[in-house]
TrEMBL record:
InterPro entries in UniProt: DjlA_N, TerB-like, Zinc_ribbon_15
Protein name: Zinc-ribbon 15 domain-containing protein
Domain Zinc-ribbon: 24-83
Family matches, as Pfam families: TerB (PF05099), Zn_ribbon_15 (PF17032)
Length: 226
């Protein structure tokens, strides 16, 4: 009788290596599973003795794309970069937001309680940068746009954020403008200056106000229902 020896490679999951969840760069939501090819000594085509590892890689459990093991480091590095950029963008956004809201609320020479409440709400929503935002708020409250500080924050935002983010900031500032119930001429003019500083058309002023008025109406209706 013939005894048939041989070798063959088998793919195994490396169970001690953590799965990289939802991180397949190809399909975006597949999990990357660490795999290895091990050569086996076979007897009658049946693997009997493990020999050497011939390849290690990550494979997506969804689209089956395979990646070099370096993918783990690459993904980690880009995640760090994403987190860092996100943190930075959030801070730039928040600083411009608080500076313009505060500035808007003092421009008519009277700092109303409703205006202060809107600003405090916004700061409370960003607890990780609360101290820095409180300092900006206090400073703008006392010195206004001294050294062009408010417009500098808006400029920074213009350089780093999308126009959607800028519109969001100005919409919040417009909430302050509407908070005391009346739109003063100074407030309207300032909002138009903000729009220009953000590179947005001055005509957007009316759109912004109309939108917020509508929202305010639905808020009131909801409150009446409750
Ligand atoms: Zn995939």
């Amino acid at each position: 009788m013939f005894i048939i020896f041989g070798t063959r490679g088998l793919k195994h999951t490396v169970s001690e290596s953590p799965v990289l969840s939802n991180s397949c760069p190809n399909c975006n939501n597949g999990n990357l599973v660490n795999k290895l090819y091990r050569r086996w000594f076979t007897l009658f085509f049946i693997p009997m003795i493990p020999l050497d590892v011939v390849d290690r890689f990550y494979q997506c459990d969804s689209c089956k794309s395979a990646y070099n093991e370096n993918i783990k480091t690459i993904l980690q590095r880009s995640q760090d970069e994403i987190n860092e950029n996100q943190k930075r963008a959030k801070l730039v956004f928040a600083k411009a937001l608080i500076a313009s809201m505060t500035h808007m609320s003092i421009i008519d020479g009277d700092f109303a309680a409703e205006e202060e409440r809107e600003i405090m709400d916004a700061i409370e929503g960003l607890p990780e940068m609360k101290e820095e935002l409180m300092a900006i708020h206090q400073n703008v409250k006392v010195t206004g746009n001294q050294d062009n500080q408010v417009f500098n924050f808006l400029n920074e935002a213009r350089n780093e954020l999308s126009s959607e983010a800028l519109i969001n900031i100005l919409a919040q500032a417009a909430v302050v403008l509407l908070a005391d119930g009346a739109i003063e001429k100074e407030e309207e003019n300032l909002m138009k200056e903000y729009l220009i500083a953000c590179g947005l058309p001055k005509g957007m002023y009316q759109t912004l106000i109309d939108k917020l008025m509508q929202k305010d109406m639905t808020k009131i209706k909801k409150e009446q229902l409750n």
